[in-house]
Amino acid sequence: MKLDLDRTPGGRTELPLDEEIALQWAEGRPDRARLVGTLTVDNLEGRVLVSGQVQAAGMAVCSRCLADFDFTWDVEISCMVLRDPESEEGRDDSMVLHQRSGEVDLDEVCRESAVLGYPLTVVCGEGCKGICAGCGRNLNQEECVCEADTHDPRWDALP
């Protein structure tokens, strides 16, 4: 996604976002996600602020039953483009870009925001039963064949 600094009018404008990005991260997480929403662009003197909350959608793996499913999550995007390339402000921050004019590539900002906004655990549904720890069957699809022995011999010595 590109933001053309030379054509962005002063003040506040909106930037529509509908783009698929490669997330490039851990196994079991979506490889790609589609980001949809509207970003607010504030073109101020010496800096451009880009912010907004968008929706990301991609394939995920359920943390309980390990099934693949379509998943949507909220992504908060916020970055600042400093038009003074000599400025030391925000040098160590990945959400601060230094560029005087031309097109600014916002793909990395969108990618980082989508990765950071992804929840630690995701489930395919509230009623997901998961996988049986004994036999390994997906309890959403079939019954468990484990014996229901709840007796623990370690407790026998207690009165």
Which helices and strands, and how do they pair?
Elements: E1 2-4, E2 11-22, E3 32-44, E4 47-61, E5 68-82, E6 96-98, E7 103-105, H1 107-117
Parallel strand pairs: 5-6
Antiparallel strand pairs: 1-7, 2-3, 3-4, 4-5
Task: Explain what you see.
With 159 residues, the chain is mainly beta. The model has no long low-confidence stretch (mean pLDDT 85). β4 and β5 (68-82) form a beta hairpin. A five-stranded mixed beta sheet has the order 2-3-4-5-6. A two-stranded antiparallel sheet has the order 1-7. It is built from one helix and seven strands, in the order βββββββα. The protein has one domain (2-128).
Supply database-style keywords.
159 residues, 7% helix, 1 helix, mainly beta, two-stranded antiparallel sheet, single chain, 5-stranded mixed sheet
Over the alpha carbons, how many angstroms does the gyration radius reach?
Answer: 24 Å
Q: SSE string, helix = H, strand = E? A: EEEEEEEH
- Choose one word for the global shape: elongated
Widest sheet: strand ordering: 2-3-4-5-6
Structural class: mainly beta
The number of helical runs is 1
Largest sheet: 5 strands, mixed
Rounded to the nearest angstrom, the distance between the terminal CA atoms is 70 Å
Q: Unreliable runs, pLDDT <50, ≥5 residues? A: none
